[in-house]
Design a protein that fits this description.
The chain is an alpha/beta fold. It has two domains: 8-225, Spore Coat Polysaccharide Biosynthesis Protein SpsA, Chain A (Alpha-Beta Complex); 231-301. The chain has helices at residues 18-27, 50-56, 70-81, 101-111, 177-182, 195-205, 231-248, 251-276, 279-294, 298-301, and strands spanning 8-14, 36-42, 60-64, 86-90, 94-96, 115-124, 131-133, 163-164, 172-176, 209-220. Strands 1, 2, 3, 4, 5, 6, 7, 8, 9 and 10 form a ten-stranded mixed β-sheet that branches. Helix 7 (231-248) runs parallel beside helix 9 and helix 8 packs antiparallel against helix 9 (279-294).
Length: 319
């Protein structure tokens, strides 16, 4: 079985969302692929879910950390603990829609050996039939922003042509073990937001390709973890947007981006948050800018890629 059906490690994270996580785990029973392991990392949730997970989901390999490692660190830990030939990183706030999801995500790897990551089509959970993701457009070198192909469009089959895309989607990305060993994994310093875009960009730099698989989809309960416009999301999106551009653009491109940031992005965000009375959002935005100033040397000091061998298991809670 192992040769015909390589082991796929499904890795997901729980953080204060036990009900949502249990719904996700139950939806995994729909999968038809015969050789999977499921790894659940609890990122030091306020309430310990150990008893419930272990009593209700016997096949799940459950681990709890002593501190919140973020999306990047939590998934890196899951990859470190995984035994699979492929790592299926999938959000706990998704639910399976296509039973043959894993089979179809694996297919492109067999056809094109240069493929390193695949992602399926994604629909909004609360809006059946509405697309969230059908591939990624490339990040604009001036603004540091990008967009998802098909976002908020009714799915009429207009994006049912599979093909290469610029980035994998962090909500559901199947990654080969070869990528993890060659490129490295998520860069821990992102913690949350932009981490999958950074990993994707680095994967492409190493000569791999990323593939959008249109033949299967899942449903995503978008932004249930941190809120659509929460101060936490403002902080990490703003902070990591700059870090992504520092890591993935040349000097000229970053100079143009920095000019745009200084004269347009910063004034606009400050004005918008003030007008709306969103003072916590404003505080988060300012903190994000200050973090990049204070940590300007981080790009020289931190290894460009987090390697599997360097991921510590010391953060695991010992039961």
């Amino acid at each position: 079985m192992a040769s015909s059906f390589p082991l796929v490690s499904i890795i997901t994270i729980n953080f204060n969302q036990l009900k949502i996580t249990c719904e996700f785990l139950r939806s995994l029973t729909l999968l038809t692929y015969p050789n999977i392991e499921v790894i659940l990392i609890d990122n030091a949730s306020d309430e310990d879910p150990t008893e419930i997970i272990k009593s209700q989901f016997h096949q799940v390999r459950f681990y709890r950390t002593v501190k919140n490692l973020g999306f990047a660190g939590g998934n890196n830990l899951g990859i470190k603990l995984a035994s699979g030939d492929y790592y299926f990183i999938i959000n706990n706030d998704t639910e399976i829609a296509s039973p043959n999801l894993v089979e179809k995500l694996l297919e492109p790897f067999y056809i094109d050996k240069s493929i390193g990551m695949t992602s399926p089509k994604i629909h909004y959970f609360d809006h059946p039939g509405v697309i969230q993701f059908a591939g990624y457009n490339k990040i604009n070198p001036l603004t540091g922003r990008n967009s998802q192909v098909g976002d908020r469009e009714i799915d009429k089959g207009q994006y049912d042509i599979s093909g290469y895309t610029h980035y994998a989607n962090g909500a559901a990305m199947l990654v080969s073990k070869e990528v993890a060993n060659t490129v490295g994994v998520f860069t821990d310093h992102f913690f949350l937001c932009y981490e999958e875009l950074d990993w994707s960009a680095q994967t492409i730099k190493f000569g791999f390709k990323i593939y959008y698989q249109s033949q299967v989809y899942l449903r995503h309960k978008e932004s249930m973890s941190i809120g659509k416009t929460s101060p936490l999301k403002v902080y990490y999106n703003s902070r990591n947007r700059i870090m992504f551009m520092r890591r993935n653009t040349n000097a000229l491109e970053f100079s143009l981006f920095f000019t745009y940031l200084l004269f347009l992005t910063i004034p606009k965000n400050i004005f918008t948050f003030l007008v709306k009375g969103q003072y916590q959002h404003l505080k988060a935005f300012v903190r994000a800018m200050l973090w990049n100033i204070k940590n300007i040397n981080i790009y020289a000091k931190v290894p460009f890629h987090t390697q599997l061998d360097h991921i510590s298991l010391d953060t695991l809670q010992i039961n």
